[in-house]
Structure formats: C-alpha cells, structure tokens
Amino acid sequence: MRIPRNFKLAAIEIKVEHKDSITIDSCKACGMTDYANQKILLSGIATQQVGEQTFIHELVHWILFMMGEHKLRNNEKFVDLFAHFLYQYEQTKEFSSDKKVREDAEHSPKQSKGRPKTLFLRSGERGRLSKIK
Ligand SMILES: [Zn+2]
To answer: What's the pTM?
Structure first.
C-alpha cells in the first residue's frame, strides 16, 4: 500500500507529513491527526506496515471528523477496529482483469433492456462513470 502525501475529504485537502518522532501527552506515538492544520502526522520510526496501519487509523479519525461523528472519532477502540478491517481489506483485495469485468457487466441478466448500462471504469480509464448504450 502506498501512503499518499495528500488527499481530499469533502473538498478539504489533507496533507500527510512524516516526522522524526511524535509525542502526545508525553507519550511517543506512531501517528496523529491534526484537525486544525488539516494534516496527518506519521512517525518516521515506524516500519512500513506500522506506518500504513497508522495512516489508515488516522484516516478513519479524519472521515469520522468530516462526518460530524465526534463521539465516534474519539472512540479509539472503534477507530482502531474499523482501521484494522479497512487495512485487511486493502491488503487482501484482488481484482479481475478489466476485460473480464466488462464482459460480466455486459452479460449480466440483471440489466434491463432499453435503459443505458452504466459501468464503473477502473482508474486506468480515468475512474469516471461512463454510459454505454
Ligand atoms: Zn487514534
């Protein structure tokens, strides 16, 4: 998994910064969410896997913040479990080839005739929705 240097949530740009070390309340931490400065801070001493897991953990904090779920975003148990599931998804996902996905969609019996079919194209195809008649 690649950790981005920045991303957007609800049009807010959030930067990811790597620090030599991070201290919260006199304790060393692997990561930290800085809402006021729109940042995620990651400690440089973390291994790649710990850095990735920490990034996902801080991302979950940010998503809950943007949703206005302030009680949940401060629930470390919830945030950590959600982040673990999301990280496992990220690490284990597999894709069919693009051609196979297209063929499956075109031959799907659920598609009604007369209405345009809508396919989601992968990021290599600019990740846009495209109508196919
Ligand atoms: Zn946390």
So the answer is: 0.71
Q: Specify the DSSP element, H or E, that contains 72.
A: helix 70-73
| pLDDT tens, the chain, 133 aa long | 899 999 999 999 999 999 998 988 888 889 999 999 999 999 987 788 899 999 999 999 999 999 999 999 999 999 999 999 999 999 999 998 766 666 666 666 655 555 555 554 444 444 444 444 4
SS3 label, residue 74: coil
The backbone region for 63, taken as left when phi is positive above 0, alpha when psi lies in -120 to 50, beta otherwise, is alpha
CA of 18 to the centre of ligand 1 (A): 17
> How remote is the CA of residue 78 from the centroid of ligand 1, in Å?
9
What's the 87 CA to ligand 1 centre distance in angstroms?
14
Q: Distance, CA 22 to ligand 1 centroid (Å)? A: 13
- Give distance in angstroms: CA of 127 to centre of ligand 1: 31
